[in-house]
C-alpha cells in the first residue's frame, strides 16, 4: 500500500468541505488532479471513501472511521514542519452556541489573543447540534456548547455553570406573583429556542422531569427575537439569565420563578487529539472558570 500526504489532505478537505471543487481550490490543485488523488487513495485502501449525491459527496462509514486518523497524521505533520518555537500562531476555529458566542466568547477570545497576537480567531455560531456537527466534519477545532451532549468520537469537558430564566412582560399577570406553577405551564404561550438548541433541550427535559407539560410553543433560533416577542407580550420566554440580565435590571422584562430545575453546565467539545494551540485555548478557558 502506497499512500501520499497529498492524497490524505485531499480526502480530509473533501470530507470537511463536502465538495471536491472546494477541496481542490484549498489544496491548490485542479479538480481532475484532486479527483485522481481520491481515486488512487481508494484503490490503495480497497474501499470507497465517498458516495456521490448529485453534486455533493457524502462520506461513507469506512471513510468516517478513517477520517480521525487522517486528521491526526496531518496535524502531526504540520507540527513537524513548523519551526521549533514556543510561540502560538495560526487559525483558531471555534464553534460556539448562541449564548456563549454573544455573552462570553468575545471577552475570552480577546484575552487569549492579547497573550498570543499571532493567533487568528474564526468564530462560528450555531445551536448545540450545529456546533457538534462542525466538529465532526472538521470545520471547527473546538466547540463550546450549552446543552447536554455525548457525541461519539469527541471529548466533552465540563466548563461553566449557567441557569436558564423564565421571563415575561411587566404587564403580564404573572409579573405580579412572579411565579409559575406546574399546573399553569400548559395554559401559557411559550416563546422558546428551536429544537436542537441546548437551551431548548434543558427546558424540555426540566418540564418532563417535573411531570409538567406545555402546549403552545413559538420556536425561534435567535435570542433577540425571543426577547422582543416577550416584550410585545406574546408569551413567556426562557433563555440564559446572562442574556436577559440588563432587561430585567432596567424593568423591561420580569424574571419568574418556577418549580423547574433550569440549571445547566456549559461544556467544551474537542476531538480526542488536539493541537498545542487548541490545548492552550482550552487551558485559558478552564482558568477563567476557576
UniProtKB/TrEMBL annotation:
<protein>
    <submittedName>
        <fullName>Substrate-binding transcriptional regulator, LysR family protein</fullName>
    </submittedName>
</protein>
<dbReference type="Pfam" id="PF00126">
    <property type="entry name" value="HTH_1"/>
</dbReference>
<dbReference type="GO" id="GO:0000976">
    <property type="term" value="F:transcription cis-regulatory region binding"/>
</dbReference>
<dbReference type="InterPro" id="IPR036390">
    <property type="entry name" value="WH_DNA-bd_sf"/>
</dbReference>
<dbReference type="InterPro" id="IPR005119">
    <property type="entry name" value="LysR_subst-bd"/>
</dbReference>
<keyword id="KW-0804">Transcription</keyword>
<comment type="similarity">
    <text>Belongs to the LysR transcriptional regulatory family.</text>
</comment>
<dbReference type="Pfam" id="PF03466">
    <property type="entry name" value="LysR_substrate"/>
</dbReference>
<dbReference type="InterPro" id="IPR000847">
    <property type="entry name" value="LysR_HTH_N"/>
</dbReference>
<keyword id="KW-0805">Transcription regulation</keyword>
<dbReference type="InterPro" id="IPR036388">
    <property type="entry name" value="WH-like_DNA-bd_sf"/>
</dbReference>
<feature type="domain" description="HTH lysR-type">
    <location>
        <begin position="3"/>
        <end position="60"/>
    </location>
</feature>
<dbReference type="GO" id="GO:0003700">
    <property type="term" value="F:DNA-binding transcription factor activity"/>
</dbReference>
<keyword id="KW-0238">DNA-binding</keyword>
Amino acid at each position: 500500500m502506497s499512500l501520499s500526504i497529498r492524497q490524505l489532505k485531499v480526502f480530509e478537505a473533501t470530507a470537511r468541505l463536502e465538495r471536491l471543487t472546494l477541496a481542490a481550490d484549498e489544496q491548490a490543485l485542479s479538480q481532475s488532479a484532486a479527483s485522481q488523488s481520491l481515486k488512487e487513495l481508494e484503490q490503495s485502501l480497497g474501499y470507497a471513501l465517498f458516495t456521490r449525491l448529485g453534486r455533493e459527496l457524502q462520506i461513507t462509514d469506512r471513510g468516517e472511521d478513517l477520517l480521525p486518523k487522517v486528521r491526526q497524521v496531518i496535524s502531526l505533520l504540520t507540527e513537524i514542519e513548523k519551526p521549533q518555537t514556543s510561540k502560538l500562531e495560526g487559525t483558531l476555529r471555534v464553534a460556539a452556541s448562541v449564548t456563549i458566542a454573544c455573552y462570553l466568547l468575545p471577552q475570552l477570545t480577546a484575552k487569549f489573543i492579547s497573550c498570543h497576537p499571532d493567533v487568528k480567531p474564526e468564530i462560528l455560531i450555531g445551536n448545540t447540534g450545529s456546533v457538534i456537527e462542525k466538529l465532526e466534519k472538521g470545520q471547527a477545532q473546538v466547540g463550546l456548547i450549552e446543552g447536554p451532549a455525548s457525541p461519539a468520537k469527541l471529548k466533552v469537558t465540563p466548563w461553566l455553570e449557567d441557569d436558564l430564566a423564565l421571563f415575561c412582560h411587566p404587564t403580564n399577570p404573572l409579573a405580579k406573583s412572579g411565579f409559575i406553577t406546574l399546573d399553569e405551564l400548559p395554559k401559557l404561550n411559550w416563546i422558546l429556542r428551536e429544537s436542537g438548541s441546548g437551551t431548548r433541550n434543558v427546558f424540555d427535559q426540566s418540564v418532563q422531569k417535573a411531570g409538567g407539560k406545555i402546549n403552545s410553543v413559538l420556536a425561534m433560533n435567535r435570542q433577540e427575537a425571543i426577547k422582543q416577542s416577550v416584550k410585545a407580550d406574546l408569551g413567556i420566554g426562557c433563555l440564559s439569565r446572562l442574556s436577559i440580565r440588563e432587561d430585567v435590571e432596567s424593568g423591561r422584562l420580569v424574571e419568574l420563578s418556577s418549580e423547574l430545575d433550569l440549571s445547566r453546565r456549559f461544556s467544551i467539545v474537542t476531538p480526542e487529539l488536539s493541537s498545542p494551540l487548541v490545548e492552550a485555548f482550552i487551558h485559558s478557558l478552564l482558568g477563567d472558570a476557576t
